[in-house]
Amino acid sequence: MMQRLRVAVETPQYAGLARALDYACPHHLPAGTLVRVPLGQRNIPGIVWAGAPDQEAAEARPLASLKPVAEVMQALPPLPPVWCDLVDFTARYYQRAVGEVALSVLPPELRKLDNAGLDKRLRLLAKRSGWAMPEPEGSLPPRRKSAKVQSSRPGPAEPAPPPPLPTLQPEQAQVLATLADAFEQAQPPCHLLHGVTGSGKTEVYLRAAQHALDLGRQALVLVPEINLTPQLEARFAERFPGRRLVSLHSGLTPAQRLANWLTAHLGHADLVLGTRLAVFCPLPRLGLIVVDEEHDPSYKQQDGARYSARDLAVYRAWLEKVPVVLGSATPSLESWQHAQTGRYKLLTMAQRVGQGELPKVRIVDMNLQPQPAPGQPAAPLSEPLLTAVRARVERGEQSLLFLNRRGFAPVLSCTACGWKSGCPHCSAWRVFHKLDRTLRCHHCSFTERVPKACPDCGNLDIQPVGRGTERLEEQVAELLQGLERPGGGAVRVARIDADTTRLKGALEQQLAAVHDGSVDVLIGTQMVTKGHDFRRVTLVAAVNPDSALFTADFRAPERLFATLMQAAGRAGRDAAAAASSEMWIQTWSPTHPLFTALRQHDFARFAASQLQEREMAALPPFSHLALLRCEARDAAVAEGFLRQARDMAQALLTEQAADGQVTFYAPVPPHVAKVAGLERRQMLIEASTRPGLQRLLAAWMPQLPALRGQHKGLARWAMDVDPLSI
Ligand SMILES: Nc1ncnc2c1ncn2[C@@H]1O[C@H](COP(=O)(O)OP(=O)(O)OP(=O)(O)O)[C@@H](O)[C@H]1O
Ligand SMILES: [Zn+2]
Fold it and tell me: Where is the composition biased (Pro residues) (predicted)?
């Protein structure tokens, strides 16, 4: 007999098809089953969704009128119920259609395959990896409770003997004892591991993962950036020979990503390391979630469903009743506040491994430095900093110079008429890249050759203004010319940023050169300040951190503090050299309290003062924000839409019983107002309670598509719940 099935399919946000669609099927299919269903002229992938049939839809579309499911993807076991719950929650919380979220977090390759194609892939993978094919009915391998069963399974490679384990530091041992308890609890708490840089957090993750594996479970480890996965992968692979380890991030080929996802979903992977998208990886034996550098903004997805993988990891751990560890030297103020109120369990590691000291912070007051002669570019490094770098080179130690701006110069300017290299499509400058002599817009990618003469007045003298990493590299190499390394040979300056690492394998190669000591001075963007365990770096310098001090975003200080602490943490990681390690800051605001706190390595004090300010201003975590963004060719259209949307919301609020206060701010342009020819505007909504905000959004968002017709030229809009930058 035909049955009614709800199927989640990917529909555009504005189609208004927020719910799953109904189809007919001759037999019952469990929720989570992958299917292909007809929609319009095509067959598209979908997922059977649980829940009571929609009364209204059932009346409007009787069973007999429903289209049948086109194909059941029997080759794959259904996605587990907790996975569906996580997707449901994500869709509800971040105000997106369930089908959109569900399908967008599957490997893209999976969505393309039919059952035969998938079956073929699975067989190939099973053969290559040496495991038995799943039963066609899709039964999962049973949850293994004992380690004995586990180890009898063939691993991917000939297991090498595991390396000897380091003796735990007392703080590490204490943290691990607490975590061991958590594994025993029916509903383990969320842990915030606040460990200073170099305190051995990774060792804690490794041991906790070991614990999960010993229980026959899988561990999921999230890192903020792709470029941190290879080194973490190497550390885990070395620690767990014979265990199956897969990574999940957007840098994999589609085929690799599918294979790794399948390995995890079928329960064959013991460890999954990945970036934010991995939080959705189905894991039938999940036993532990780790979120490394939990404060990192990369955990927030910036388009589609703008989810926070960190927050979802906490929710998922709660759903699956497994321990979760959020680790950071500079926790987000949201997590820190939860730890203060006892909602999260705070674990602290205040000591560096081997009693190593944290680097001494030196502030260079740029107001006191000699100014360049008129017409001359300013020197990138102040005299005292340059002297310190030279001394390191002569001692055979490494220095890391951090500048968060790539390219040669952020803008080119005509010395005669003042023309500047603006982007014709954006309200931004185009950056001068010297290597290929281009002007590139970092917002819309519009690229042109550098003009030979000023396009406005024909003057031949066009000069770079300001400095990016490419220029810093050139200038520093010049400043250090003639210097010799201890063993002989000229000083070597290298640069690592998004431009030098475009080619596959380039980053690994460049990092290897730093690790093996063939680089003396490393110049880089934020990319090099995170996570790396550089053993020979004894000096880190923030060349120009000031711009971040004075932006309008209320999170700017929190973010700058985290970045600088993390950068400082790259210095003196070898306990033997720790005492002479230094973090240098060149600034025009040397008395800024942020730098004072940094000097004392006092995160707690900094956090307390920030939280106090946030509380007074009713900002997160003391309020809850959503940001309605929209884009149109004409700014007035964008603003008109936002204003009408606001009126609608205010009308809804008077209908709803009050659940705290909700405040609407006026529509404003974001930091970069125009991108690729579209004007952007945004409206901030601030609510005193989370349920109050959620209730408003749930009633309001479905009404927005109806406004579209009244605002001709509106390109798109999106709601950003818990926005990270405003
Ligand atoms: N118990 C230990 N005994 C000896 N060495 C250890 C121990 N724990 C960690 N280490 C070593 O100390 C160094 C720093 O540890 P790790 O990279 O885990 O620090 P971290 O807290 O993750 O730092 P960051 O936050 O800066 O990334 C590593 O080289 C690691 O191998
Ligand atoms: Zn542009």
Answer: 156-167
